[in-house]
Design brief:
This protein is an alpha+beta fold and 82 residues long. It is built from two helices and five strands. The strands form two sheets. It has a three-stranded antiparallel sheet with strand order 1-2-3, covered by helices on one side. The longest helix has 11 residues. The termini are far apart.
Length: 82
């Protein structure tokens, strides 16, 4: 039997639906949330999840302790002029 390995791994970013909001990839490393008036780019999907939780008034029973520890990391703002 012969095993054929892929030479490279391409990471595919995709959208997530969380608590009624959509988290979409932005650029190569960021994520945005479709919250009205939110123009921030988050460093990862976990930061976007935490931003939605904060917007809705706390985490409640959602999210684990590790996810809550990571907090919200913003890496920029959406440039509307593009």
């Amino acid at each position: 039997m012969r095993v054929v390995w892929k030479d490279s791994h391409v990471r595919k970013y995709h959208s997530y639906d969380y608590r009624g909001y959509t988290i979409t990839p932005y650029g190569e490393t960021g994520y945005t949330v479709n919250i009205k008036g939110d123009d921030r780019i988050y460093s990862g999907r976990v930061s976007a999840f935490n931003a939605i939780d904060e917007y809705l008034g706390g985490t409640g029973q959602r999210g684990g302790a590790k996810r809550k520890e990571r907090g919200i990391k913003v890496i920029g703002k959406i440039d509307e002029t593009k």
